[in-house]
Amino acid sequence: MMAGTSEQRLARIEAQLDIGQLPIRYALAVDQRDLDAWVALFVPDVDMGRRGAGRQALRDYIEPQLRWFYRSVHLLAGHRIELGPGEEPVTATGQVYCRAEHEVGDRWIVMAIRYDDTYRLVDGDWLFERRRERHWYAADLAEHPQAVGFDSWGTGGPPALPAADPAWNRFWAPDGHPLSR
User: Fold this and answer.
1) Residue 152 pLDDT
2) How remote is the C-alpha of 97 from its chain's centroid?
3) CATH number for the domain that contains residue 59
4) Which residue from 103, 78, 63 is spatially nearest to 24, judged by alpha carbons?
5) In what residue span(s) does the SnoaL-like domain sit (predicted)?
6) What values do phi and psi take at 116, rounded to 5?
């Protein structure tokens, strides 16, 4: 049993639950190309190294990278959270396993990823302080989803996602990029 008062134990449980939502919120924001939601998951003073600090520096860095691939799907496979010291921690670390798939031109790239995260409590919200992406591999699938209309099982025609997400359409619309394929 955890030490501390009921309130302290509850605060730790709530912290783990809140932190546990960050990776899925991150995956949804990336796959929907919702840059506002994505940068809001990071601390306001996020350190971007030589690129500067803050959410705008983060946004300026990530937007061009998101244009390297058209569609993506991030599937989370597990999340370890280690709360910082004390009964009411304000920091934590974690690791998230992810299988990510990306449409890159006529290729469909699958990546095995582990994110090494640092979290910080800011104004009552748990946020990413740092997110380090590490890959096991990135490889093209043997069968290209595009070649089979994204539906080799015959489950219902063209995919609804990502075009069903308003943020996705807003992201690509200024470029005149096709809103669906």
Assistant:
1) 59
2) 11
3) 3.10.450.50
4) 78
5) 12-132
6) -105, 115
